[in-house]
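Title: [Solved] GNAT family N-acetyltransferase 3D structure

Original question kept below for reference.
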Amino acid sequence: MARIECRGFSLSSVYDDRTVLAIPPVRLATLSDARAIAELSRDSIELGLGWSYPPSRIQKAIRSRTTNVAVVHESGCLLGFGIMDYGDTAAHLVLLGVQPHQRRRGLGRHVLSWLEQCALTAGLERISIEARADNPGAIGFYQRQGYRVRGRVPGYYRGVLDAVLLEKKLGMAGAGGAG
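Solution (posted by the thread starter after getting help):
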């Protein structure tokens, strides 16, 4: 039995080969989600780099007319989130994070797919992402979702860590995996 503590809530689950795990729905974040999103970013995505996305910056993204901040919650706990900026022809995935103890459930894929569908509905041509070069798990995840490596930026993260640039073409061009 796994027991997970989350701000006064206790989630207990028994996992075996008969358990079907339901994926909670994705919804737009509210200002009350900002602190939990910022803390997950700091503790999992920005680990070792300082805090670039404090609650105030997340709140600004939530208020933005050109940004979607999507979240997945369960029993009052933030399980995962994604932040995507939308431009005239392309979108940029700013952050995507899932609680470490909730990974491998399909939550990241679920949030990413929701954000991609928004970009596709808006008629955008592609989505770009930067991933930490020291995170092959994230790079592999994006590749499995149809993103292709487009390059590398030395010192992208605070001058100390490289970024791997990835891109996915949307619409008919993206459907066939062309890139």
